[in-house]
Amino acid sequence: MKKIALILTLFLGAISINAQTEIEEIHKPLMDYIEGTANGEPDRLKRAFHPDFNLYFVKNDSVNAWSGKGYISNVKKGRKSNRIGKIVSVDFVNDAAIAKIEIDMPDRNRLYTDYLMLLKVKGEWKIIHKSFTFVEY
To answer: Pairing with 88, which of 20, 25, 68, 102 sits 20 to 30 Å away (CA)?
Structure first.
């Protein structure tokens, strides 16, 4: 019985370590997005986003799309912005993940909530889609 318990404990421990490692890997493009946008580092955004990345948002009760290339072009190298971002949650199964991020923009009195879809492509996690909304405070 002790052997079964030990084997089960080792197995569950290995699963937990693998999941933690994968979460850390998912955090890399998320932090590239958060810090790259805040610190004026478009190359970090290019690394985080899949080339076909798009953003979706609601405006005037309609869904609007914005290309990732257009988004990246708005981030000027070296130009910092007052954005405070944090990862709220991450969930994944195999090669698909979803993340929730909050971006506080105190200059605008807005708190943005981003929902990001990620896929693991050639061993690297890439953000493929983003939906966002905000509340004013």
So the answer is: 68
